[in-house]
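Hi everyone,

Forwarding the result from last night's run.
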Amino acid sequence: MSPSRDRVRIAFFDAYALSAGAGIALRDIVERLDRDRFDPIALLPRDGPLVEMLREIDCPVEVAEAPPPLGSYDRRLRDAGAWQKAWLLFAMLRYSDTVARWLRSHHVDLLHCNQTRAAFTAGPGARIARIPTVWNVRIREQLPRVVVRTADACSDLIIPLTDCDFEGLPDGERLLRKSVVIRNAVDTERFSPGRDGAETRGQLEAGESPVILSAGVLVSRKGFDLLIRATARVVQAVPPAKLLIAGAELRASGDCRSGLEALIADLGLRDSVALLGHREDMPDLLAACDLFALASRQEGDPAVVLEAMAMGRPVVATRPAAAAVRDGETGLMVPGEDVQALADAILRLLRHPAEARRMGRNARRIVEAYLGAGGTHIDTADVYAGGRSEEIVGEALAGRREGVVLATKVRQRSG
């Protein structure tokens, strides 16, 4: 830290720059930092909604475009030939130099990488600049081993959302030993079961129909196609039932929305399924629904599930999306890719409203207990102090400060 500054400068890097999921979580982290102690700044590899979201909370943002193919890699990297891998390596070297120069010129003390792609993209630059780095794992996803290993090699500390995020990886146990698990949290005042959903139901033309709500960015891993197929079976038994899906399309994901629209038409569900697009009124939507469902193929600890639980709604979720769900107590957990099991679970709750209400009450109670007495706030910070975190980050920062505040989350409690 520069002698002329009395605050720790934390740089935040997000690979997507979106106004959903991880982008919202990052915005919340920055918004709740103690500005008397910490000085946030952000570097993004592309322009996007997150730029304005951060600037609105007085966080300076700069965009340094990542050269292709950075930002577009995925599991196809495993099958890439020598030329494609060489192209990626050259792009990484170029961008690492850009990131290192930026970190040095802005006198950054710590780099926070939001998701694995961010650690893969910006982590090497931080290593060149000798800046300690935190890798925040927000999704349990199948990525090429070289991506995970690069993120690991460039990180001094890992913050996964659950202790299951590294299951199945060859280095999973070692990565977990390097980690501090910090679960997602929810604002229990904003998401409260006392909200009246009648007006929203009217606006959505739902009337007295049973409403199933789902939400998330429109990408394949969210499994909305599975949920739509399950709804086709649900409406055969409960014809008035409606599925509402809130969420915008990810720009880099291809034309996912049109694919879902075609599936809805093919299954004859135009009167039963609605794609609502991006919404800012999730508490109202949750108040208007009878249950929340998420059929993700890959997830971490989805905040939207916690929000539904805080609103007193039972949750039907596939195993990858069910980190917070207690099967049979706060909702129902089903195997991934099992459309029939998904439909059966939804039908069970629609046919047994008393059981659904009991699960919803349990969900609210558990969320309140998870957040602590009263559940009236989200911790504005999680201070690295004591144990492994102090050793890893403290040594990396060369003893220049007592701790680093990073997260608007609650540390996972034992039991």
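The mean pLDDT is 85.

Cheers,
N.
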